[in-house]
Structure formats: C-alpha cells, structure tokens
Design brief:
single chain, 458 residues, mainly alpha, MgtE N-terminal fold, CBS-domain, Tetracycline Repressor, domain 2, 3 domains, three-stranded mixed β-sheet, 67% helix, elongated
C-alpha cells in the first residue's frame, strides 16, 4: 500500500467516523492485510481506534492488535470495553495475549485473566521476563505421548482448529512430560499409522531453558536452522516452543533498543509514554513535584534580572521599582505555558488525551496551574516584599504570578488543540502563539494589580 493511498484512506476513515458512519469506515480497512490495517490504526487516535474496532470481526481485530506497536496495543486495550477486550484476548495466540497483558494496567490484567476462557496457558507465560526464552515462547504446538500411534496423532491434528502460527514439528513426551523426541510432519507422513511416535521422533534435539536470554534462543535457531525451538524447565519438561519469526522480531526490537542506548538516548516512545501518563493522569501533586523545580529556577533567574536593573535604579521612584519584576512575570507565564504545550502534544500523540473529553483534561490542567501559581506567587511575593521593604509590591507580584501561571497553563492546553484543528503543526506554532498571548496578558494583569494596590498608579 503506497503512502499516498494510505493517507487518503486515513482521511476517509476519519471523515466517516466524524459523520457517525462507523460501519462504512470499517469497510475501508477490512479488505487489507493485518500489517496494513495496523499501519492505519497507528495513525488514528485511541478514541478513533475504539470506535472503529467495534465494527471489525473479533478475530480480525485480534490480528490487528498483534501487529500494533506494543505501546499502541496496550493503550488501545486499556480503552476497550472489558467485554470486547476479553473476546479479543480469547482470539489471540497465547504468547501474543500474554505479551499484551504484560503491558497493560495490572488491575485490568487480572480482571481479564479471571474472565478468559483459557487463561491457564496465558498465565503460565506471564511468569517469565519478556527478554527470556520463557517470555518469548508460545504454548500452542503439537505434543503427544511418545507411545501414541502415528495415525491417532494425525487424527488429533486434523481435529484441532487451524492456527495462524503453525509449527511443523511434533513433540513426544513421556509420563513425566519430559521431552523425549521431535518429529517433523513429513516424518509422520512417511511412517506407518500403527507406529508409535517414539520410533519416528528423533531423540537428539536442540532445546533451551526457560530462564535463558532470548538472544541465546535466536542464536540456536539460526545455528541449527530450526523453525521452532522447544523450551524446557530444570527437569527437562516441555513448557513451550519459540518460533523463528518471534525470535527475529524480538531481536529486531532489542537491536533497536541497543542502537538508541549506544547513541546515548532512549527510544522516543520509551521516553515519553511513562512521562505522559504521569503528567496527564497521575496525581496532581506529582505534576507539581516534576514541574515546580524548573519553574522555581526560572523565577530565580527573573528575580536576578530584576536585581541587576535595581543596581542602576536605586534613586528612582516606586513606579520604576515595579519594572524590576516585569521579567519575572513574563518569564514565569511563558515557561508555564510552554510546559503545558509540551505535555499536551505528547499526551495527544500517545492517546492519553481524548479530544472528546477535553473539558476534563483542561480542568485538570487549570487545577495544576492554580496550585503552581499559589506556590510561586507566595514565594516571589514574599521575596519581592522583603527585598523592597514594601509588601504592597510583594502583593502585586504574588497575585500577578498566581493569575499569569494559571492562565498560561490553561492556554498551553487550549491553544495547541485549536491550532491542531486548523491543520497547523502544534509543535511548531503553539509556543510562539502562547508566548505572544502571555506577554500581553501578563503585563495587563501586572499593571492591573499595581494600579489597584499602589498609590499614585490608580
């Protein structure tokens, strides 16, 4: 699918969703292959994804989620209705379901496991780290007792539903579930139906322990030219199988991560997802703790700038003294707005901010801004009053900062949303717009309070 056709299809899907024609929107994506469907889904917001997924057959929805980036898949899963999520998980391969559940909220993970039809297989896979052989294996493979007749094994295979991830090996186990041999499907076709499986299966095989690193599994698959690798516990009991495509995918992800680390950086999504979740949905006091130090630093810099001016303005009247604190008010408003713009853009891109419930997000940001404004206004007002020996000036500076910071944080969420609606890049345009508005309104607020509390300006 070319990039141009992809863009056109995404625009058409968005338009149909906006018009409430969700079934028609789904018809545009259903004929595509799962990787192409996932590519389109990753360009849609979480809210658009959930609306579209309701009109896609559950098995196909499971395939789409399997091809999504891990963070995108987890975000979508957390926004789905629990009943829809359960149906999707039941359709997924056990290892894919385990990968998805391992990335979502622990409470939702447990609720899902409690309601899944075959949660035991998935639960057993969740106990291993993602970068281990156990975390990479699947529990969906052909396994029979070593004394099973070849004919009966074939009958059992025919009765099993067709899987997306077929493994071309048959695994023979003993009474203790220890792996005793591996046979290819081609070996069984050539064997007599009455032959026991142990006479066909090769007792010499390559395996790996569940606790081994996934890189070792990939190396063994490559070295011995295997399509699948059995995973054993410390007692040589068969736990699962690692397929070569899963191993390659895991190595690609690890190689990308190693590349970022070697360059001294992290993957952009790894950096942003946790930070955005904290800023958008975490406790308000944590937002204060993260943002307050930088704002205090900016405030101190503004006070120092006012002090430099004051060195040369000792003989001036009160009206000139007010000019010392203009940089503080302007800088604090500008920086508060810039912080909010960054948090909004990151949260919007990652799907943590839903435009349909924007009022909730902006009210939360106003609460954050109000808390920051109170703290910064009190500190700056106290310092200004002590410095000038006039607490009327401190009152003007403190109230100005309170109002300016609160207004700037609200504008930091509102302006990029409006800019985005106008099809302008919010990352490019938001900060200049915010700065211009804050400079103007900041000075209006400052001189309003000055005229209200200081004699001679009213």
């Amino acid at each position: 699918m070319t990039e141009e056709r992809n863009i056109e299809r995404i625009k058409a899907i968005r338009q149909l969703l906006d018009e409430g024609r969700r079934a028609e929107a789904a018809e545009l994506i259903v004929p595509l292959l799962p990787p192409d469907q996932a590519e389109i889904f990753e360009e849609l917001s979480v809210e658009e994804q959930t609306r579209l997924l309701k009109f896609i057959e559950v098995g196909e929805a499971a395939n789409i989620i399997e091809f999504l980036d891990d963070d995108d898949a987890a975000s979508l899963a957390e926004h789905l209705d629990i009943k829809v999520l359960i149906r999707v998980l039941n359709e997924m391969e056990p290892d894919e379901a385990a990968d998805l559940l391992g990335d979502i909220d622990p409470k939702l993970r447990q609720q899902s496991l409690d309601r899944m039809t075959d949660s035991e297989e998935v639960q057993s896979l969740l106990q291993y780290p993602d970068d281990s052989a156990g975390g990479l294996m699947t529990s969906d493979y052909y396994v029979f007792h070593q004394e099973t007749r070849v004919g009966k094994a074939f009958d059992a295979i025919r009765q099993q539903p067709l899987q997306d991830e077929e493994i071309p090996y048959i695994y023979a186990i003993d009474d203790q579930e220890r792996l005793t041999g591996i046979a290819r499907l081609a070996d069984l076709i050539r064997a007599h139906p009455e032959q026991p499986l142990q006479t066909v299966a090769d007792p010499q095989f390559v395996s790996i322990e569940a606790t081994a690193d996934q890189e070792v599994a990939a190396q063994l698959l490559s070295k011995y030219d295997l399509l699948a690798l059995p995973v054993l516990d410390e007692n040589e009991r068969l736990l699962g199988v690692i397929t070569v495509d899963d191993a390659i995918e895991a190595l690609e992800e690890e190689a990308t991560e190693d590349f970022y680390k070697s360059a001294g950086i992290l993957s952009p999504r790894d950096q942003q997802t946790a930070k955005s979740d904290l800023m958008v949905r975490g406790p308000i006091w944590k937002s204060w703790m993260v943002r307050l130090p930088f704002l205090l630093l900016t405030m101190i810099g503004g006070l120092l700038a006012g002090g430099v001016i004051g060195i040369y303005e000792e003989a001036l009247e009160t009206i000139v003294i007010l000019a010392f604190f203009i940089p503080v008010v302007m800088n604090m408003g500008g920086n508060s707005g810039t912080q909010s713009v960054g948090i909004f853009i990151r949260g919007y891109v990652l799907g943590h901010i839903d435009p349909k419930s924007f009022a909730k997000h902006i009210l939360r940001e106003v609460a954050v801004g109000l808390g920051l404004g109170i703290i910064l206004g009190f500190v700056a007002g106290l310092m200004a009053g002590l410095w000038q020996g006039d607490f009327q000036i401190g009152l003007v500076v403190g109230l100005s900062l309170l109002c300016t910071v609160t207004l700037a944080t609200a504008l930091g969420f509102l302006v990029p949303l409006i800019i985005n609606k106008l099809n302008i890049d919010p990352a490019v345009a938001s900060e200049p717009v915010i700065t211009t508005i804050n400079d103007f309104t900041g000075m209006l607020i400052y001189f309003f309070f000055a005229s209200l509390f200081i004699a001679g300006l009213s």
